[in-house]
TrEMBL record:
InterPro entries: DNA_brk_join_enz, Integrase-like_cat_sf, Integrase_catalytic, Integrase_recombinase_N, Min27-like_integrase_DNA_bind, Phage_Integrase. Keywords: DNA integration, DNA recombination, DNA-binding. It holds the Pfam family Phage_integrase. Belongs to the 'phage' integrase family. This is Site-specific integrase. SUPFAM superfamilies: DNA breaking-rejoining enzymes. Residues 188-375 form the Tyr recombinase domain.
Length: 388
């Protein structure tokens, strides 16, 4: 038998362990792994060491995860964080996060990290971040409070992970949000279509385009939910459609809905049901997606192609002032509430956990009083004259 092969940085430590030797954070590290030092295991240990060296070189090495029982993990993590720039950590954290979050969420994270956080954090060291310094940097931005909230949400999530990894002692933005003093808004993004505008839009369309828009007006679904619908989601007997997935341009396949409350059943009102019945002639036999791009015969890929190939042309032909497709959702909400439908029912139809969002967003369409307000309570609970 020939001599056993030797591997750099790898040696038998005992009958049941192998020692791996490498440099990290300027220190020489020796860690043992529980493997008998057989030739095959020595090769495996060498491959493990090579992966560690690559991760160190790429800045993605996590000592505590790789060696969870190591007594040196926390000390070395602190040593690394004492030198690590916050923006470098955020970038490395972002790439790891891609493995566990939806593509659409990842797209939003990337915009925040590369569009805002890297510039805001600058050359700040991760371990030196503090609330006062972060507040000072946020004060200097020209961002709206909505954007500031998104920036802090991503930063908070990243620093929570850094805290769990032992890289920082505390999260400076935990349970805290910086907001600027903004003047009251004179307008908002809610701009529903009137009944007359809806009629003109639908009359300017035909076939699948008309069905899609009519269905959108009368279900209030998000665009990402509309394009994800399959015929198997329709319950014809109960006249509801199950909303349990969404599709965005960033995702390669259907993902979960925006929120847990987004998984819901939406009642098919007569105009929505009519649109579905007419749509059957186009896509029902394929037993897949309900709505297709008529130009390609494929499922709609998201909001952008809908706007460019159908929506803009429909509004132009109808001579209706342009609003983006999401206004069909706002139109649904305003119609339901103006007609006196219960806000909680509307909230459930639209995928909100409670009616707080409905009250804040669509409060102007909730009738404050009607001619017979209070009369039903009197009739139900007030004692009759002969009973007093």
């Amino acid at each position: 038998m020939g001599a056993e092969r030797e591997y750099e940085g790898v040696r038998p430590a005992s009958k049941s362990t192998i020692e791996i030797d490498f440099y990290y954070a300027g220190e020489r590290c020796k860690e043992r792994i529980k493997l008998q030092p057989t030739p095959a295991n020595m090769k495996r240990a060498a491959q493990h060491r090579a992966a560690i060296l690559l991760a160190i070189d790429q800045g993605t090495f996590d000592y505590a995860t790789t060696f969870p029982n190591s007594k040196r993990a926390n000390a070395l993590a602190r040593a690394v964080s004492s030198k690590m720039l916050a923006c470098d950590y955020i970038v490395a954290w972002l790439e790891k996060k891609a493995l566990t979050i939806k593509s659409s969420t990842m797209s939003g994270y990337r915009k925040i990290v590369y569009g805002h956080l890297i510039g805001i954090l600058g050359n700040d060291v991760l371990a030196d971040l503090n609330r006062g310094g972060i507040r000072e940097k946020l004060e200097k931005t020209n961002c709206s409070n909505k954007t500031l909230a998104n920036i802090q949400s991503v930063l908070r999530t990243a620093l929570n992970d850094a805290l769990d990894d032992g890289l920082i002692q505390s999260n400076p933005v935990a349970d805290w949000t910086y907001r600027k003093v903004e003047p009251p808004k004179t307008d908002d993004d809610i701009d529903p279509f009137t009944s007359e505008e809806q009629t003109r839009i639908l009359n300017a369309c035909e076939g699948q385009a008309r069905n899609f828009i009519q269905f959108a007006f009368w279900t209030g679904l998000r665009t990402s939910e509309l394009v994800a619908l399959d015929w198997s989601d329709v319950d014809w007997k109960r006249r509801v459609i199950r909303v349990n997935k969404a599709r965005t341009q960033k995702a390669v396949s259907a993902e979960d809905t925006k929120t847990r409350a987004g998984r819901r059943e939406v009642k098919l009102l007569a105009p929505a049901l009519s649109a579905l019945m007419d749509q059957k002639q186009y896509t029902y036999t394929q037993w897949a997606e309900i709505f297709q791009n008529p130009n390609t015969g494929d499922r709609w890929a998201g909001d952008q192609p809908i706007r460019k190939t159908m929506w803009q042309h429909a509004l132009k032909r109808a001579k209706v002032r342009y609003r983006y497709p999401y206004q069909t959702r706002h139109t649904y909400a305003s119609m339901m509430l103006s007609a006196g439908e219960h806000p909680m029912w509307v909230a459930k139809q639209m995928g909100h956990a409670d009616w707080g969002m409905i009250r804040r967003t669509y409060g102007r369409w909730i009738p404050s009083e009607v001619d017979d307000a209070g009369s039903r309570a009197v009739a139900m609970f007030c004692p009759k004259p002969d009973e007093q």
